[in-house]
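Ligand-bound model needed. zinc ion.
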Amino acid sequence: MKLLLSFCSLLLSLTLPAQAAVMLIYHHVASDTPRVSSVSADELRGHLQYFKDNNFQVIGLDLLIKQLREGTPVADNAVVITFDDSYENNFTTAHPILQQFGYPYTIFISPGSIDKGDGPLLNWQQVKQMSDDGVLIANHAMWHEHMAKPAAGETEQQWLARMQQSISAAEDKIEQVTGQRHQWLAYPYGEYSAPLEQLVSELGFIGIGQHSGAVGNNSALTRLPRFPAAGRYADLTDLAQKLRTLAFNITDYHSVDPLVNGVNPPQLTLSLQITDFNRTQLQCFAGAEVLKPEWLNDNTFTVTASKSLATGRSRYNCTAPSQSKKGYFYWYSQPWLNQP
Ligand SMILES: [Zn+2]
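Prediction:
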């Protein structure tokens, strides 16, 4: 059955024009919060009006994930709106604007932080109100903790048990307040690692990151990408290009772990179907550095930065222009976390 499904989705991906959804990530909707994680109310309104005027379909994350799980083609030109961290301005400012447009959206919350009243966050009454209004409420770990690796002095087993506890406790609390239980985890800070993905998959969860890229039928369900839409990314010309991105049909991620373990700079190797772009037009970047893809065979390439990655989070991005959809680019981002 599984084989038949994957055969069908392979046929679909070969026969249909390129389709993809783009997930956007917002935090604050305010003018007096840190610019890097904020859009103003006017900017949010401008984004939503742009989706409307340019025939983007704003769909709920529940529909996108259903399509991904079932292997049915993802809605074309789809946009999924998400907010992380449950700031109070999401209720006071963003929610009425999104309701005016009638657009579905998702908020990823950390229940422990809400319990503690950690900053200008939503309270549970507001979460319940939004849920009753149809907002999808999902998991951002119990305490918004760094999840990708063991804490100092912790064994791998202790760390994974602690992560499982955090994920389950958050999901239970969300269900208790809202009745919703989606089992979608947005990794705090977008930080994940191969063992964490394994855990997320075993728990039956979907894992969602903060690296950029479009979502397509071959996207890995433990690391769905999202484009940032706030701060310097809020500008409509920039956002317009992100909305016109497509997902490479990746057939093998070659077990690339975002955690940089000893080998720095790390090597990214991907195998993909080349159906709608010219492989000579594939370009990869590490920051401002252009990386030359080395092709190992017809469908597999590898890239490595020339210099060691700095401590913290960084990315390799790879893009190629679509041949069938004018103005659209295939886009893949590989996040790295270097914490020696
Ligand atoms: Zn967060």
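Residues 84-85, 140, 144, 188 surround zinc ion (CB under 6 Å).
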